[in-house]
Structures are given as C-alpha cells and as structure tokens.
Write a structure and sequence with these properties.
This protein is mainly α. It has helices spanning 4-8, 12-35, 42-63.
Amino acid sequence: MAKIKDLRAKTDDQLNEQIVALKKEGMNLRFQQVSGQLTNTARMGQVKREVAQIKTILAERKTGSKE
C-alpha cells in the first residue's frame, strides 16, 4: 500500500496511470472473487482506498487546497 507522502511526490500523469493500473487490478480481483479463486479478500478494500486517496490528491491539486 502506498504512503500518502509517496503519492504526493508523483506527477499528475503518474497518478492517473496508477489509477488505471489499480482499477485493472480491482477488476481482476472481482473476477477472482466470483470464480472462487480470491485468497486475499482484504486487497479489494486496499485497492479502493488507494484509488480514493489518489483521486483526493488530484482534486486538491486542481483546487489548490492543501492540508
């Protein structure tokens, strides 16, 4: 799982690429769950959380707000 500090150091393009990769991973995890092959069920929540964190960082940059 990525740390917020590491995510903030990346460029917008890198973050968008990471969102795409995480969404693909999430889709694969859902297929595994349906077929009964998913062993690490906690990873689904981690993927969702990481996507949300990245989207939050991108939104903060767009509006110019920081913590």
